[in-house]
Write a structure and sequence with these properties.
- It is a single chain.
- This protein has 157 residues and is an alpha+beta fold.
- It is 43% helix and 13% strand.
- The protein contains six helices and five strands, in the order H-H-H-H-E-H-E-E-H-E-E.
- Helix 3 (38-53) packs across helix 6 (123-136).
- It is globular, with a radius of gyration of 18 Å.
- It starts with 5 loop residues before the first helix and ends with a strand.
- The structure holds zinc ion.
- This is Peptidase M15C domain-containing protein.
- Pfam families: Peptidase_M15_4.
Length: 157
């Protein structure tokens, strides 16, 4: 039996608990990030790096881009949700009206991959991430700051 020093054991446990993207998830993240306009992409990359560099935040979850560019057809599909289709209203923009409908794209949506593999849209985590995004680039607007329709996963320039 080998005796592992306590701090080594803790390090191993932390490494095990750390949320990690699969290669496929990593590729789709790179693909989505590449759709963003350079200023937004750079702000996201910097905010993400700061998040990952924080010993506590990195164990809570890792930021992921759930969507950047979306087609006008997909936007119309989302618009129908909560109106002619079941589900909550998720957007007030029709196809072509959203910043998500441009390429390169000035908008992206963020969530967090947790250690158990689930995805979180925690308002607390998103507001923490929003602070890092705004610190990275003051031109970044966070949907959580909007008065009429709070869209916490949403960031745009
Ligand atoms: Zn959005």
């Amino acid at each position: 039996m080998t005796v592992v020093p306590n701090n080594k054991l803790l390090e191993r446990q932390a490494a095990r608990a750390e949320p990690k993207l699969s290669d496929k998830q990593q590729r789709s993240q790179e693909y989505r990030l590449a759709q963003a306009v350079p200023s937004l992409g750079a702000a996201y990359a910097q905010a993400r790096a700061r998040w990952i560099g924080d010993p506590v935040l990195r164990l809570v979850g890792v930021p992921i881009i759930t969507e950047c560019y979306r087609s006008a057809e997909r936007q119309d599909e989302l618009y129908r949700q909560g109106r002619s289709k079941p589900g909550p209203v998720v957007t007030y923009k029709r196809g072509g009206e959203s910043k998500h409908n441009h390429l390169p794209c000035p908008a992206l949506d963020v969530a967090f991959l947790l250690a158990d593999g689930s995805v979180s849209w925690s308002g607390l985590l998103l507001s923490k991430f929003a602070r890092l995004m705004k610190a990275a680039d003051a031109r970044v607007c966070w949907g959580g700051d909007w008065r009429r329709f709070k869209d916490r996963p949403h960031f745009e320039v």
